[in-house]
Design brief:
The chain is mostly beta strands. The chain is 1% helix and 53% strand. The protein has six domains: 1-30, no CATH class; 33-121, Immunoglobulin-like, CATH 2.60.40; 133-233; 239-347, Lipocalin (Beta Barrel), CATH 2.40.128; 351-469, Lipocalin (Beta Barrel), CATH 2.40.128; 603-726, Beta Barrel (Lipocalin), CATH 2.40.128. It has one helix and 52 strands. Strands 22-21-20-19-27-26-25-24-23 form a nine-stranded antiparallel sheet, with no helix packed on it. Strand 42 (562-572) and strand 43 form a beta hairpin.
Amino acid sequence: MIKNCLFAVALLSLALASGCAQGGSGVVPSTPTVVVSTSGINADAIYVSQSVTLTAKVSNSTNTAVTWSLSGAGTLTPVTPPTTPATATYVAPATAASQISVTATSVADNSVSNTLGITVVDVTTDVTPATLSVGTTGGNGGGGLTQQFTAVAVPDDAPQTFTWTCNVTVKGVVTGSCANFVQDANVSGLAYYTAADSCSGVGCIQISAASTVDPAGCTPNPKYCTTAAASLVTSRVSGTYAFRFSGYDSSNNATAVVGTFTASNGTITSGVEDELTSSGWAQNSITGGSYSPTKSDTNNSNNAGTLTLTLPSGVYPNQYQVVVDGAGELKMIESDGHGTGSGIAQQSASSKLFTGVQTYAFGFTGVDSKGKRVGYVGVLPMNGSSGQMDVNDNGSSSNSVCGTPPCTVTGSYQQNANGSWHMALTSPVTMGFDFFIASGTASKTNPLTFYAISTDPATNPAVSGTMVLQDSSQTYNIAAFNGASVSALTGTAASGVNTNVSLTLGSTDGKGNFSGQFDQNNAGTILSSVEFPPTGGINNYTYAATGTNGRYTFNMLGNPPTPLPFVLYASGQNRGFLLDQNSSSVMTGRMDPQGKGNGFLAGSELPGTYAAATTGSGTSGVGPIAANLLLTWSNAGTCTSECVNGTQYDSVNYNPLGVPLAGAYTIFDIGNGTIAVTGPPAQNYVIYGLDTSGCTSPQNPVCAIQDFLMMDVDKTNPNASIIFAQQ
């Protein structure tokens, strides 16, 4: 480093110069420094046989040459004569290895060097969907249905080229190759299977994709290949389902439906539903109906269809366009031309799981007697003990249902003759609800879920929603919320005409501090990637437990540094139902844990087939959609990287053929990103990864974003909604 001497006066210049100089030169010798890097490639996850360019940056010396040395497996080829900056080429061995180091030593001073540690990992392939059923009848002119499968290779730098295999097995023994299995001609990580085989048992179709870097394939080394196991079924819709729906009728009046139906190989045999309309509450018998797979989508006919319910004359909705995820859940939008809305149907869990001594957190949304938006959140023990509830009625937390929040909730329940259950609440006011057992178990990772609906809208708000079994092993104090979560909220704008929706990726620290970022679309006014709390000043984004039953207060959204007050009732750690406490938007929704993949996410974690649909409509102006989304990650052919395709259905301008989608996605390491749909029509979304798994370290890189949430961030759309996508 050069040091300048300051000459205060001419007479003292020689004295000052001699005091500043070293050896009479006026220059202080500096020690060179060397830094070795891999040009953006993760040195802890070099794949087998990968060729990597290493760069040595030399500072504090005019001589930037280095000598190279290697310790451990692989080969290193220095570039001679040295370039500026100095580079070398490392070629990884053909098998995984660790304790590898490359050292660059300065030619100017051979006592100065820098060492880079390298870990070589095997290429691992991941095929999705991992488990699902493929229909053998009902689509493609009556033949078997077609399902798309995607593959990725990790580490992310590995070539995205694959050799696919599809085998038929009987009791785990391979009996032959699949009759109709095709790899896409343009995208190596995409293949199509059409149900044209005869086999029985869970997962009798085995589909794998081996990286071309590993010519031995998956059979001798299945440790590094994730194989999809598909089961053949007559119809993907069989069994007893619970469903919920909310939306608006053709006169823009709010509607809600909760019910159950039983299907046998796609034929609806029986069922019952509770319905809320502008005329009040009614219970209707479902006497028939069907599920018919689509015939329009030749690539993914296994994932879409039409659900028709036979109801009394004049009762709607009675037809839904549905998309089906890998678990067999139906995402629904109304398609009968008598209204718009969306919902979900899930196979019902056993009623034996409901013991009656459990505690449930709940979140309900609907309208009051004047048609104004209202939201409920609370917790209710089902053993006769009292619970708690908060209500926001058109911006007022003190209202005709809940005078001073939180309100005490008491009541009793009994089973109806049709198999549903009825709750009769005696406080805070007399109210009635029916609920149906949906999916889940008694475990905290997959809690039992109910769909509920009010039965006395003439005297109380007309609301419906979800009840979730509360994790009884959890202590609901401030430390219980500690980790990453995603919150999705829907409400109305100040005018009451348009929507106000948001997505938040937040982190709680177990001490009352809340931080992260959010996106919001308030009637077309967009807030993008707003970080909270702002740098400097007091952190107003906090949370607190108000007792031990699971009630919390959260400060979130708003313009930093001024958040908005919310109340949350927890169903478990980092999860629960949210309600804004005092705004006329009446924003309601859920907070859910993000998962275990936080911090190591990339574009290769998102490829797959997703069933996506609107979760709820804040106003009648929302156009609910359902879509089959195909996300691929490739470096060849028509899809160069992070591509989106699929078919979209619109509840407003319903077309049974749907419209094709095309676009691109991005994903950031914290689990959020974007989807830009080029049409038709062009739309821009933010996405927040919800259920992430794996990705715990660079050495364990196989991971997936199984679920994510989408929100329209186009300024031209004042009626955006939250869309849930699930593999």
